[in-house]
Write a structure and sequence with these properties.
single chain; 167 residues; alpha/beta; three-stranded antiparallel β-sheet; two-stranded parallel sheet; 14% strand
Amino acid sequence: MPLPVVLGHEAAAVVEALGEGVEGLEPGDPVVLGWRSPCGECAACVRGEARRCPRPLRAKRRLRRASDGAKLTPTLLVGAFAERTVVHAGQAVKVPPELPPEQACLIGCAVATGVGAVTHTTPVWKGARVAVIGCGGVGLAAIQGARIAGGGEIVAIDPDERKHEAA
């Protein structure tokens, strides 16, 4: 990535302004920002494998550092560790206003990664035995995804005993 960068890729936000022609969003809408939003037009997207899209939607690079005006590169097309960021409208997914942002932000990566692992990467079938190693955000999402997929015995493994109850 070209330097300087703005880190952060799991984000919940409130739409402040919209670019020309944006539909389906309004200022004030609570959103989750997706770092891997498929283009919808490439061969992978057309054949139903959007997760393999080589051309994810992205905003024009226009974030600038206040101290010297240098263009900033948002990590994973989000740059969530800034007070404000600019993303492609396709990266902003509306969420219910009652969903707390500290929970909503997990949907954009931890939930998508954990659930995606058991529904796409290594699909869990009804009755499958599943072991999930690591019960952080992604691991908990994988456990939940395995349950939703109909997994039979689901074993959660983590050396940190504080995580056992949540798992």
